[in-house]
UniProtKB/TrEMBL annotation:
Organism in which the protein naturally occurs: Dorea ammoniilytica
Bilayer-crossing regions: 6-24, 31-48, 86-112
Keywords: Membrane, Transmembrane, Transmembrane helix
Lineage: Bacteria, Bacillati, Bacillota, Clostridia, Lachnospirales
The protein's name in its UniProt record: SpoVA/SpoVAEb family sporulation membrane protein
Any Pfam family the entry gives: SpoVAC_SpoVAEB
Length: 118
């Protein structure tokens, strides 16, 4: 059942984003920022953790999960280091995921020979 919940929740998030892209004048970058900020706000209010436990990867993989990761990192760093944690917590919490995306993207560019669009 975990796979089913992840599938329908992730699909619902993606469908919502597609509706925003098709029906509004919002640019894709602004929608991405909206998703990251929404994840952080939901984490702040304590709503995201139960949502993520229910939906699993359907909630943690989209940009909502990235926003929540940033929030949790900042929260933890502020508790540990004080005000300086506001600036360092998000970087520490998300560094592994960002590094993995860069490394795997670079490796994929070796394998698949990327080309410019015409």
């Amino acid at each position: 059942m975990d796979y089913v919940n992840a599938f329908w929740v992730g699909g619902l998030i993606c469908a919502f984003v597609q509706i925003l892209l098709d029906r509004t004048k919002l640019m894709p970058g602004r929608i991405m920022v909206l998703l990251v900020c929404s994840g952080a706000v939901l984490g702040f209010f304590g709503v995201y953790e139960p949502f993520q436990k229910y939906a699993g990867a359907g909630a943690s993989v989209p940009l909502l999960g990235f926003g929540n990761t940033l929030f949790c990192g900042v929260k933890e760093a502020v508790e540990k280091d004080g005000v300086i944690g506001i600036f360092t917590g998000g970087f520490k919490a998300s560094a592994a995921g960002i590094a993995a995306a860069l490394i795997f993207g670079y490796l994929a560019s070796w394998v698949f020979e990327p080309q410019m669009k015409k």
